[in-house]
Amino acid sequence: xxxxxxxxxxxxxxxxxxxxxxxxxxxxxxxxxxxxxxxxxxxxxxxxxxxxxxxxxxxxxxxxxxxxxxxxxxxxxxxxxxxxxxxxxxxxxxxxx
Amino acid sequence: xxxxxxxxxxxxxxxxxxxxxxxxxxxxxxxxxxxxxxxxxxxxxxxxxxxxxxxxxxxxxxxxxxxxxxxxxxxxxxxxxxxxxxxxxxxxxxxxxxxxxxxxxxxxxxxxxxxxxxxxxxxxxxxxxx
Lengths: 97, 130
What we know:
The complex is a heterodimer. Chain A is mainly α. Helices cover 74% and strands 0% of the residues of chain A. Chain A has helices spanning 3-24, 28-52, 58-82. Helices cover 81% and strands 0% of the residues of chain B. Chain B has five helices and no strands. The N and C termini of chain B lie far apart (57 Å). Residues 110-130 of chain B have low confidence and may be disordered. The interface between A and B is large, with 46 and 46 residues.
């Protein structure tokens, strides 16, 4: 087994544990946290699998996934906090509920 | 020259195995920690430390080419955005009114134990540094 196979298996096991937290999580923030962790580990997994198959072009997909993960986490947080995506991020108007 | 290849391979193994160790620690901490804020601490560790170690190992294997530049860009982007999203999550959680858990750690384990609960509770209170 190459080092990439071992790393891919370890990352998949960690993704399974984070997915369990996303299913169990008592609050919605637990699920957002688990989703963010799964996204970061997916970036790692795409890069490692690309090296494992001798196709490093997969790194472009990893870059795009890293960008989308950050934007997606912030969008979900804002939607969950304000109930809509249209309002500005002012601290005084938010956080009452 | 083959000693150099062997050294690079060994360094790749070491870096990626330490990275996988931290990735597994992160998943276990996400699963087992008792509080949301401790889970945020555990989850934020993989974003920077494990990503740096794993991508460093991949960069050692890729030689010096465009692939290395792409790996560097991914690591630089993750180092900026992951702590930002972690902080945003913690701040939104705190503003929403979820307080950190300050005491009562390990009570779920003590219920499963067959040792007397009062003895364990007194030990917890005396041993609590807070």
